[in-house]
Design brief:
The complex is a heterodimer. By secondary structure, chain A is mainly alpha-helical. Chain A folds into 3 domains: about 100 residues, Orthogonal Bundle (Rna Polymerase Sigma Factor, Chain: A); about 130 residues, no CATH class; about 90 residues, Serine Threonine Protein Phosphatase 5, Tetratricopeptide repeat, CATH 1.25.40.10. Chain A is about 75% helix and about 0% strand. Chain A is elongated and about 85 Å long. The relative contact order of chain A is 0.06. In chain B, the strands form 2 sheets. In chain B, strands 2-5-1-6 form a 4-stranded antiparallel β-sheet, covered by helices on one side. Chain B has a two-stranded antiparallel sheet with strand order 3-4. Chain B has a single domain, classed as 2-Layer Sandwich (Alpha-Beta Plaits), CATH 3.30.70. In chain B, strand 3 and strand 4 form a beta hairpin. By secondary structure, chain B is an alpha+beta fold. The chains are: A mainly alpha, B alpha+beta.
Chain lengths: ~425, ~120
């Protein structure tokens, strides 16, 4: 039943928003329908079409709510006249929505995704709104996943919905000539949700796992709705190929395990196969983009049976293309890491040192951690320890700090032994 | 919906020579024509430089008049359009076509409709 709920929530909410043009009323109605389902289904059994049952029930509950509001409004004085007009307009819309119109159409969810991820909304607002309406995560769940007080997150949702209303963000799929531009912000939101779940800056591990699953589910939905967009396939592939390593990424004591030290037998082979097929399918479209390239890199890592069998030359080539398509300090750093594998640690370190002038790098913990690793390989231990210390000072969570501390300890031990 | 498109530009980033200025005014002319032809134009003007600005406020019944204000930022309000657009996406479309968008920033504000 929980699975049905998660799958149907976004669909039902999207349909109700189309009919009602009101986020709050739609959410309340769907919540009402879930309560009704919790009461009825254990007694009557799960209906043949649970989605239609929820949507229809939600529609009926919305009619009840609107009628109640109208009765209240008509009893009140002139101040309520506006509200009465508003509710009767909604009532008319609901009445006009015949049963067949309530049938979910795939575009409902697509419209909702584009609305929730409109670039005119701040990313944190778009994330909260997407997870709340399309994902059906509760406000407390989202708040704890992003480590913000529940009241802050609730405020964020209220502001986002108000902006949609007052700024005139329409509930529509963008025109074909703007689709690419608008899709970028949708993909970015889903990517941020996944990363927040995967990179676990802190917080409850279980809820973070939910974030990854939710991001994958939404990317899968987007790939179904827009099968011709290679970057959508690329993002889904990237998530699957990364998430496939989840079980091996943390050991029994909750310690982070480096990619090259992970037990590859614990990787999810089926998920890797699906991700690889998606990368290939996306690249065949001939419109390469950053998500496809990152997915291709993840695929090269995933297809190596052992770390020392990794095809670093191919990875370096992919990072070079990525640096042209979507240049960023992070991509430049990863390119330097790949270069160290292909041409040796000295070449990698030289490439990294060339990046040190970038102020963003000084604050980026992975830069210092990556430099430290190369310095160890070059037997420049004091420099390596200093770099580990910089990285440790910037590390946010327990698992990552513990990992860096362990590496630093190994480097120091090697120095005293040698 | 009605939207106010406010054009913020840094004079140093825009056209400098007379020829370039002429071209920009021409571009603004054809942009205004486009707004009119598509039924979006409700109004719009270019403003004198910020150095021509005067501030007035009323405090305890007294008028306080002063020179300025002079914002800290380099981008200054240089003009505006008032447009009619179906939704925010249409307003973004119209704002992105303003010649000043190429070197400045356009702020899009929905009009607070009364009643």
């Amino acid at each position: 039943m929980a699975r049905v709920f998660a799958e149907e929530h976004g669909r039902a909410t999207a349909t109700l928003i189309r009919v009602l043009r009101d986020f709050d009323l739609a959410e309340e109605a769907v919540a009402d329908a879930y309560v009704a389902a919790l009461e009825r289904w254990p007694v009557d059994g799960i209906p043949a079409n649970p989605g239609a049952w929820i949507t229809t029930t939600a529609r009926n509950r919305a009619i009840d709510r609107v009628r109640r509001a109208r009765t209240l409004a008509s009893k009140a004085d002139a101040i309520a006249a506006d509200a009465a007009f508003e509710t009767s307009r909604r009532d008319a819309a609901l009445m006009a929505a015949a049963e067949d119109e309530m049938a979910p159409i795939p575009d409902d969810q697509l419209r909702l995704i584009f609305t929730c991820c409109h670039p005119a909304l701040a990313p944190e607002a778009a994330i909260a709104l997407t997870l709340r309406t399309l994902g059906g995560l509760t406000t407390p769940e989202i708040a704890s996943a992003f480590l913000v007080p529940e009241a802050t997150l609730a405020q964020r949702l209220v502001r986002a919905k108000r902006k949609i209303r007052t700024a005139g963000i329409s509930y529509a799929v963008p025109s074909q000539d703007r689709l690419g531009e608008r899709l970028e912000s949708v993909l970015h939101v889903l990517y941020l949700v996944f990363n927040e779940g995967y990179d676990a800056s802190a917080g409850d591990a279980l809820i973070r796992r939910d974030l990854c699953d939710e991001a994958i589910r939404l990317a899968r939905l987007l790939a179904e709705l827009l099968p011709g967009e290679p970057e959508v396939l690329g993002l889904l592939a990237l998530m699957l190929l990364t998430d496939a390593r989840r079980a091996a990424r943390v050991d029994a004591d909750g310690q982070l395990v480096r990619l090259d030290e992970q037990e590859r037998l614990r990787w999810d082979a089926a998920q890797i196969a699906e991700g690889q097929a998606l990368v290939e399918r996306s690249l065949r479209a001939g419109r390469v983009g950053p998500y496809q390239l990152q997915a291709a890199i993840a695929a090269v890592h995933d297809e190596a049976a052992a770390a020392d069998q990794t095809d670093w030359t191919q990875i370096l080539g992919l990072y070079e293309v990525l640096a042209r398509v979507a240049p960023s300090p992070v991509v430049a750093l990863n390119r330097a890491v790949a270069l160290a594998e292909v041409s040796g640690p000295a070449a990698g370190l030289a490439a990294m040192n060339a990046l040190a002038a970038d102020p963003a790098m000084a604050e980026y913990r992975f830069f210092h951690a990556a430099r430290a690793e190369l310095l160890v390989r070059l037997r420049r231990v004091p420099d390596a320890l200093a770099a580990y210390d910089r990285a440790l000072a910037l590390a946010p969570n327990g698992a990552e700090a513990a990992f860096l501390g362990r590496r630093r300890g190994e480097a120091a031990a090697r120095a005293s032994a040698g | 919906m009605r939207y106010l498109l406010m054009i913020y530009t840094d004079p140093a980033a825009g056209p400098q020579s007379e020829a370039e200025m002429g071209k920009m005014w021409e571009a603004y002319g054809s942009y205004t024509n486009w707004l009119e032809e598509t039924g979006q134009h409700l109004g719009g003007e270019a403003l004198q430089e910020p150095s021509a600005a005067t501030t007035v406020s009323l405090r305890n019944g007294r008028r306080v008049v002063s020179d300025g204000p002079f914002a800290e930022t380099k981008e200054q309000l240089g003009g505006y359009y008032l447009i009619n657009a179906a939704d925010l996406d249409a307003a973004i479309e119209a704002a992105a076509r303003i010649p000043g968008a190429a070197f400045g920033t356009i702020e899009i504000r929905p009009i607070l409709e009364m009643g």
